Structure formats: structure tokens, C-alpha cells
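Submission sheet (multi-component)
Chains listed below:
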Amino acid sequence: MESLDAVSSEIIGAIAIADSLDVLEAIRIDALGKKGRISLMMRELGGMNAEDRRVAGQTLNKVKDDIANAIAAKQKILAAAVLNERLEAERLDVSLPSRPETDARLHPLSRTIEEVIAIFGEMGFQVAEGPDIESDYYNFTALNIPPEHPARQEHDTFYLPVDAEGRRKVLRTHTSPVQIRTMESNDPPIRIIVPGRTYRSDHDATHSPMFHQCEGLVIGDGIHMGHLKGCLIDFCRAFFGVDDLPVRFRPSYFPFTEPSAEVDIGCTRQNGALKIGAGDDWLEILGSGMVNPRVLENCGYDPEKYQGFAFGMGIERIAMLKYGIPDLRTFYDSDLRWMRHYGFLPFDAPSIHAGLSGGGV
Ligand code: DAH
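Outcome: structure written.
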């Protein structure tokens, strides 16, 4: 047997100078592991006579305990050092100023839709929705646009592939199909607006293949053109924030209304700059009319009993006019510099976020 004292002091010495948990573990295995030096000595006890074994066993056990204790004590010291090192490295300076965060902005389209909802909401309208992928029936036929009707060509429709029943669905070309869906599942009186996405195969500075419209529909007993005019004049004046804004109703044609009128607002153009308000020029901003009796019949309503009016406007168009945004394509560029310039702080009144009564509407 090696001199136990020498082995023991060598190991204890190594423990004392171990400078990492890994080194310490290596020492432990070398001494107390299965094939460690102390373990091997323990094994040699088997070959001794009883008396020698008792004496040597006691000594060996004490050495073993001493080494184990020394390792445990050193382990604590090294673990504390590791922890301290980490705490030192990961120290947070809570006195540093926070990083500057830019305020989020509301997209002008979201803001415009909110304003439109806020204004019509105060007049008692509710918001209705419908699917972007529409059947030919809701997008055209029920709105008195039969298959051979020339208005179909004007819509530059996106058609989906023919389905199993041989029908081609469309990306809705306007929000008007929601008029039909609402009348089919509700009884009068009806007073809805329908802000939503619409699609046409068209792309230039004033057209985008995806754009937004807001439809309006009022159905009731004794609704007449005076209601249409009053409602839309009030809307235009509230939306553009001009109390005496001139509003003109110009005869027009839509298959789903009879009579139909396009609505223009007064403006002036000086040196290329557009000013909305009194002036000698007009700007078209929406389409409208009295709901065609054929459309009422298509929805199972008796046109002798119920009348109504409808209107539809392009959200991009009214947003561009109100906020002086020159190019429609920029709405969809996701350019943060553009958003910082044209966007809105969410809590600016009036907005749905700020509460409807919060603003000047
Ligand atoms: N659907 C029409 C379009 O997309 C807009 C429109 C005009 C809607 C007159 C109406 C309306 O409800 O009465 O051009």
C-alpha cells in the first residue's frame, strides 16, 4: 500500500489549490471514484487479517471522510466564486435612461374608416360586414346587374377558378353585395354602413387592385330622397369639417338605384393646390340613389311597403382628399417614414380609440 499519509496530503494539497469546479471534480474521481486511489486502497483491506483490517479500515475511512469534506468545502467556495462572477458580468445599471421608443401611428385608412363609422354611428347606423370572396349572385345579379349587363365590364373583376358546381366566385368589386346579404337576413328598418376591402384589376396612381369602400343602406317605411340628401350633406360636412360645405347631387346611373345621384363637394383649385369648401369647382366623392325596387324584390321586400336609399364611397379617395395624400399606391407601401408623416397618434380625437364623443364630429 502507498503511504497513506503521503497520498492523503497530496490529495488535500491538490484540493486546496484547485481553481475550478472541473479540476475539483477530476481530483474527486482520481481519489474517491470507483477506480480512485482511496477506493483501490479500500479494496486491498479484503486481503488483510481481521485485526489489521480493523485498524487500517478506520484510518482509511477517516482519510476518505477528510478528503470528501475538503472537496465539499472547496466546492462551496468555487461555486460562490462562479456565481459572483456571473452577477458581476450581468449587472444591470438601472440608472441608465430608457431607449427612445417611437410612438406607433394609426394608418390614415384606419383613421378614415373610424371617422366614417363615428359620423354614421352618431346618426344611428350600425356596421355590417360580408365576405371578400363573393358569389356572382350577390356581387352582380341580385344588385340588378344581370350576366349580359355592360356594368359588369366596367368592374374589371377578379374571377376565382370554376368550382365543383361550375360556378365562378369573384373577389367582390364593391361593398354593395352586403346590402343584399343584410336585407336577406333582417327585417326593416335597416340602417347600416359597410366599410371593407374591395378588388378590381386596375393599378395606377389613383387605382389599386385592392382598395376600400364604405357602403351605406337605409330601408324603412316612407324613406325618400330628402332623407338621402340630408344624411349625405351632414356626412360630407362632418367628415371634411366644413359647416357650410356646398354639396351637389348630380343625376347619374347605377343598376341598383333609381334614381341615382353622384355627390360632389365644393372646392377651389389654385396653382394646383386643392382647397375643400366654398369655391367654383366640384369634386365627386360618392355614388348614391334610391334603392331600385327590383333590388328590394330580389331580397323578398315589397317595394310598395318599403323604400330606401343607398350610397357607396371610396375610402382611399376621401382620405386622399381630406389629408392631402397625392398617390394612392403609397397607402400600401408600408413605408414607416410615410406613416410618421401621414399617420395618426391613436389617441388623437375623434377616433374609436379615443371614444366617439371625444372629437369635433
Ligand atoms: N357600388 C358602386 C361602385 O362601386 C358605388 C355605389 C353607388 C354604391 C351608388 C351604392 C350606390 O350603394 O347607391 O362604384
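Remark: The longest helix spans residues 50-89.
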